[in-house]
């Protein structure tokens, strides 16, 4: 199944079920009005929604309407929890090598993960509004999962059953703050403005063979200003999404609707490109002695999409612009 | 005004207005059913609720019932954002001195702040359920504010008007994870299980002269197993709550219901005691060469309260026990 949230003037939007080909949708307002509601009542709605989804895909749903991905909010427009990992070790290793950073202790056994701001997620076509280019604007292409209620101490094995939906996101980052915030040890705050999500969140079966070992084994295609930037595959993730959920739940339960992210998708084969500018700059440094690739400018366009081998778009595309917000800074 | 959220079997509970003396309450279910709803519609409800509050305090509210603080959830049982600072520099300085930690760069000009988990706040009388004592269980007494919508780039001067409610909280911490998580730079995740809040959230005028310069200028009285542990005053906060809001909003807007915390309340006068065990252990180290005070055990009781000079309890008391959660760890 595929789900989207349409703008309706309210903070939580209106949940719709979207056809596999992303061409049509049906409102769920009379059943499960919002994505948060769906995550809290998943067991109750899974079977009837599967039947409705079948009808929608077969063209037998009378209430169906054309799905317009320019009208979406994030699938979950605001969440009570957003935990983002850095589960592709290749990414961190490249940055360490390029900039002579100290190695992370236990990085191969304990995932790096931070709490992210979850009160203001952006839709796939929303502008990314930021105060200044001087903060070194970057994108980060990631996959993520959304869970139902996870009990404290949930094992990695048990965590798999709590993965209900998979998402594609742009973890917008301001690199100018990263070094200070990492050194302070308190994690990212000013470095991580609002995060953007692809139009639809999908059940794991929508990935067909692309969902293996609780990893999204598909290339994440990124175009920056209409030029290819990367198509790194999620299969190289060093920790599975189940591992990440178990890490987050070690000392506390996780509320339904918690989103757990992979961190920047990164592959060892440099021909796959990168999923963020910071990594490309690390490769510049390693290959040419200095970081050549600039950060983003106002007016820049960023596009992210993941497709099945047959070309079908799994999540729809993130396709958005960087725009200056008028603030007194 | 004072507000509490009563348990009603739903995740967001039921909002009530509580009398100044904490003896009676009136349901707001027909107007603003939840605290999140109140924070999103504050401007609309402030005046009529002030009138109702007057009647409640005067004993002229026919729908009033006895307020039982054993039935509360956190005032906001789950939030879309919880940003916690470390705004009492004395606390960090003591830990640095005791354990030879490297000094934080710019600590006097840029507040330390982390994103906290906000999906599962505990009520004032809820048990604190944790998997093992081996994680070094600690409490942290803090004050916090709750805001309405804050625009990106909000100045410290403008931030004051967004402070709608003030809270008292126990930022439960697992010290066994702190060092690794700070060194990793990604902030606190396993080190910060669910946070507890005092029964009522109050408007700043309820503090009378105790609200000055956007600081809670009242002692935070802490008893651990019925013995005095500290009564540090919030007036020594090095950054005001307005400063903290402006820090959090530099690169993004903050959604209504965002909670911003002070960090452990800490005073330079050691006769005021401490608001967490970690600081007491730092003082042990400085004064006696080794940390003597143990961390918490299952069955321990922690009580926190802040009172006006006339003895009136501002927020009601946090009064809870540490209990073992049965998990497979």
UniProtKB/TrEMBL annotation, chains A, B:
Alphabetized UniProt keyword annotations: Hydrolase
Stretches assigned to the Fumarylacetoacetase-like C-terminal domain: 82-306
Entry GO MF terms: hydrolase activity
InterPro entries (alphabetical): FAA_hydro_N, Fumarylacetoacetase-like_C, Fumarylacetoacetase_C_sf
Keyword hit for Hydrolase: yes
Domain named Fumarylacetoacetase N-terminal: residues: 1-78
This protein's name: Fumarylacetoacetate (FAA) hydrolase
Organism per entry: Marinomonas mediterranea (strain ATCC 700492 / JCM 21426 / NBRC 103028 / MMB-1)
């Amino acid at each position: 199944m595929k789900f989207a949230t349409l703008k309706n003037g309210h903070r939580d939007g209106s949940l719709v079920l979207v056809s596999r080909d992303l061409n049509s949708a049906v409102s769920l307002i009379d059943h499960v009005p919002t994505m948060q509601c769906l995550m809290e009542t998943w067991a109750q709605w899974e079977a009837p929604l599967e039947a409705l989804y079948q009808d929608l895909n077969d063209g037998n749903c009378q209430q169906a309407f054309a799905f317009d991905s320019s009208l979406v909010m994030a699938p979950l427009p605001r969440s009570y929890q957003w935990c983002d990992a850095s589960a592709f070790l290749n990414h961190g290793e490249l940055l360490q090598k390029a900039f002579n950073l100290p190695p992370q202790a236990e990085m191969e056994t304990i995932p790096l993960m931070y709490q992210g701001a979850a009160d203001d997620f952006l839709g796939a076509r929303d502008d990314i509004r930021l105060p200044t280019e001087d903060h070194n604007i970057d994108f980060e292409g990631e996959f993520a999962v959304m869970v139902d209620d996870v009990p404290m101490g949930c094992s990695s094995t048990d965590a798999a059953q709590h993965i209900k939906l998979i998402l594609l996101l742009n973890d917008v980052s301001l690199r100018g703050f990263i070094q200070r915030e990492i050194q302070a040890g308190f994690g990212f705050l000013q470095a991580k403005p609002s995060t953007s999500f692809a139009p639809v969140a999908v059940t794991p079966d929508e990935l067909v063979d692309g969902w293996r070992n609780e990893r999204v084994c598909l290339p994440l295609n990124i175009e920056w200003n209409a030029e290819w930037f990367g198509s790194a595959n999620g299969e190289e993730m060093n920790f599975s999404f189940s591992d990440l959920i178990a890490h987050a739940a070690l000392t506390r339960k996780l509320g339904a609707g918690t989103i757990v992210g992979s961190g920047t998708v990164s592959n060892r084969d440099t021909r796959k490109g990168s999923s963020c500018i910071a990594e490309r700059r690390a490769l510049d440094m390693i290959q040419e002695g200095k970081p050549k690739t600039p950060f983003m400018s106002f007016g820049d366009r960023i596009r992210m999409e993941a497709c099945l081998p047959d070309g079908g778009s799994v999540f729809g595309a993130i396709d958005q612009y960087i725009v200056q917000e008028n603030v007194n800074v």
